[in-house]
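The freezer alarm interrupted the setup, so I double-checked each line after restarting. Inputs confirmed:
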Amino acid sequence: MSAFATSLSRIGAIFFKEMIQMRRDRLTLGMMFIIPIIQLILFGYAINVNPKNLPTAVHVEDASPIARTLLQGLESSGYFDIKLQTQDPAEADDWLARGKVAFIIAIPADFSEKLIRGERPQVLIEADATDPAAASNAIAQAEKIFELALRHDLKGPLANLNAAPPPFDLVLHSRYNPEAITQFNIVPGLLGVILTMTLVMITSIAMTRETERGTLENLLAMPSLAYEVMIGKIMPYVTVGLLQTTIILFASKILFGVPFQGSLMVLALAVGLFVVANLALGFTFSTLVKTQMQAMQLTFFFFLPSMLLSGFMFPFRGMPEWAQGLGQALPLTHFLRIVRGVMLKGASLEQLHQEFLAILIFTFAVGLLAMARYRRTLD
Amino acid sequence: MNTGFAIDVRDLTKKFGDKLAVDNVDIQMPKGQVWGFLGPNGSGKTTTIRMICGLLSPSSGEGTCLGYDIASEARSIKLQTGYMTQKFSFWSDLTIRENLDFVARLYQMPDRLQVVEETLETLGLTHRQNQLAGALSGGWKQRLALAAVTMHKPRLLLLDEPTAGVDPQARRDFWDEIHRLSLQGLTVLVSTHYMDEAERCDKIVYLAHGQKITEGRVQNIIRQSGLITFRGEGEGVRQIAEAIKQSPGVEYVAYFGAALHISGHDRAALERAIGQFSENNAKWQAVPPSLEDVFISMMGAAGQDKRFAS
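Predicted 3D structure, all chains:
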């Protein structure tokens, strides 16, 4: 046999050995196929950078047919989904602060009167600019939508108003982030992303290491209880999480000038809860895998949808409902709303309580799973 | 059950799924003795030890360890037992001192620092206390592990193949230490594959295929086995090994350097087998069988491992 042929047969031997090993590691094999499929589905279907059906509050003081036409125009455009019609500006404000709506559209009492008189009345759009990208398309469309809507009503004697420029002024208020600075959206979000990434990974690896090296058996043979091992192992990483938070908050202030409107206490509470949620998840992962490598893989498996579906990278409201449902299950989704709410909107604990509750439920469910999987005995 | 036994377990059985790892094992071990736990790989020694110290719950069977129920009082057992795992299971990325200190903390020793200091002194590792445990040689690792599991002054030591892969000198030192501890009143159960170690034990328990095959003093086990061994010496004796193995009555043939041992239960048959090769100028004589001869013959008698047959 020639040197080339013998070399080829050795390559073949190694190739087949590798194939066998690949087949044995079911988790890795699964990841190799599941991750691309998930990416395809998420990027292909779930992510939409031109979100429509954005929840909107309207504050209408003008009961005229023209005002109604405007609202109909808004809804039929597909960009705005009117969730609230109110006479009370404070109520609309509260909805915006809670993140239940992305816009408030205000039509003043004398709108149609002024319009007919040709006095160019104002329509006010207040947008939640904590995520500038999410709102920008809808805002860009707003003027055109109003013009089109009015075109039907402005007939006969009013037809002269149909000329360009439109017979009203659209006033835009970008709330919470008036200059629409992207960093104001990204940097608070990064806090959540970094915490998720490092804490889930560190905990799952630190736990798996004990199993992989056989030191867990030793720990269990000594007088330590399951919960003692769990808490003792998690606590150092809670500290890590809090240090990371401090660093990111200082950097966001000093490097990016991100404002801090709300209460530090509310944020601290949220960070504490979120850190525990991630550590509980990391701990659960460690009970599901055998090697540190697999722990890494599971971490990425969780991290990917967290990045894509939480509203960190892409507008949450742009996703189809099934994807929003998935996103709701992720603690990062709720943490992002809290951090952005507290830092940019000055939202209160009361306004954010649903998000807190969601993370709490997640932590509780994952913690139960972890305790069930992790037993003091080895069997 | 309040007995004078350190370990008193009956009908201990452990199943992993459909696999029967330990099958109705009884052990009654008096306090203060050193017992050897023997048996081939996978015979259920480790699983039995884990059940005794409360790490695994038995599928069936019951018993006490140091007077505590193995099913419900694992916590108390752990406090008074030292268990040394088969694989080095201390933290290789902690220093020797940090490992000892950690163990001392877990057991909440009141004079922790002093105990650690003394342990380092006894081990002769005071000058190396700040080295990583992972940097120790195999023999030293085992000594460190033994020191760590005896630091809390346990009443029972469970050692799972503590000398596997350790050089003869280190093994001897290790056994000297075991006997020293035993003199202080400790009960020690050691699993091992080394016959010389088995002979250092007061009594041995032999496990095969998850079942206890025999138990007793080494001399008694050899005597009771009824095994007869002939030793053949001389040139060319090795050449007949394959042929003599086929002869009826020869249960097992082993090389001992240039010599050959053949063993069986039927003296006449063995002599006939030797007679076949009389033209060969080997010299044959009956010798007392070694413990190893006895065990290998027992393994043959125990037959195929039936635990995994479906």
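Quick read of the result. The two ends of chain B are 37 Å apart (CA to CA).
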